[in-house]
Amino acid sequence: MPAPRRFGPIPPEEMTSAAQAVADAILAGPRAMSTGLRGPFEALLRSPGLADPAQRLGAHIRFASSIPAHLNEMAILLTARRWSAQFEWHAHRELALAAGLDPEIADAIAVGSRPAMDADTASVFDFASALLTIGDVEDELFAGVEQRWGKQGAIDLIGAVGYYTLVSFILNVDRYPVPGGEAPLGPLRESRP
Asked: Are 64 and 3 in contact (CB under 8 A)?
């Protein structure tokens, strides 16, 4: 039996006016159809002052990044895999595939392997992987992203990995469940992406 959640949803009648304002902003934005108030927002609404800027940052990362959507979603998958954030992995795997990420790349990331990739994909993969491993990137990795998407692309990619690390931590601490009976991520092989 799974461990009980630590946060869970806030019943509407128990939401503060500040939490309700943030919830309304989320539901009026681009996430309304995809995630709504699920996932990290159930926990974040307990701190509306954190929830509001976090949801606005997340909206930029998901919907306005200079990194192509399928590669941005791959960076999110790498982050979810690094922290074994089950809900994040399952939600963003679907989004990544819908955006055009090769399913073999997602499958390789799921088990901690390096997939076969074209140069653009490898550039994002290596940059995000380095951030998740050492918290920095070598000059060559920075140049690979900068040459393709400029310094804005580098910042957007750093933002994606950082934001989804926060999301992973929130989901893991909350013990947010895997959606609809899907199998959870298994343990990683010795080498992490």
From this structure: no
Give, for all 193 residues of the chain, the pLDDT tens digit: 678 899 988 998 999 999 999 999 988 877 766 666 888 999 999 999 999 999 999 999 999 999 999 999 999 999 999 999 999 999 999 999 999 999 999 999 999 999 999 999 999 999 999 999 999 999 999 999 999 999 999 999 999 999 999 999 999 999 998 877 677 787 665 444 4
Which 3 state secondary structure label does DSSP give 142? helix
Is 144 exposed, middle or buried, given 0-12, 13-18 or 19+ CB atoms closer than 10 A? Answer: buried
DSSP-assigned states of every residue in 41-52: HHHHTTSHHHHH
- 163, 53 contact by CB (below 8 A): no
Contacts of 31 (CB under 8 A, 6+ apart): 55, 58, 59, 62
**Is-contact 87 167, C-beta < 8 A?**
no
Six-digit token string for 190: 């010795």
* Two tokens, residue 74: 């791959």
Provide CATH code, domain 67-181.
1.20.1290.10
For the whole model, what pTM was predicted? 0.91
Domain ranges across the chain = 12-62, 67-181
